[in-house]
Amino acid sequence: MPDLPDRKTDAAKDAVGPDQPETDTERRRRRAQFLRELAEARALRERVQPRRAKAARLRHAMRMRTFRW
Residue 30: inside a domain, yes or no? Predict the structure, then answer.
């Protein structure tokens, strides 16, 4: 079995203690990682379920057309 990075050490490295507030840089880095993973999940869902993804796109477009400021 290949050596996989230990999630506990990664989480401990990313975790900020109660006495150390999270910096803007760390928050932006975590947010960027989350958004990359979210986009990847959406792309995967579109490939796996193209009909459902198309229907979701059309529903979203209709919501955006009918939205009023």
Answer: yes
8-state DSSP, 6: P
The tens digit of pLDDT for each residue in 5-38 reads 555 545 545 555 667 788 999 999 999 999 999 9
Number of domains in the chain: 1
Residue carrying the six token digits 């990847």: 40
Q: Half-sphere exposure (CA, 13 Å, Cβ side) for 14? A: 13
For the record, the structure tokens of 26 come out as 């760390």
Per-residue 3-state assignment (H helix, E strand, C coil) for 50-62: HHHHHHHHHHHHH
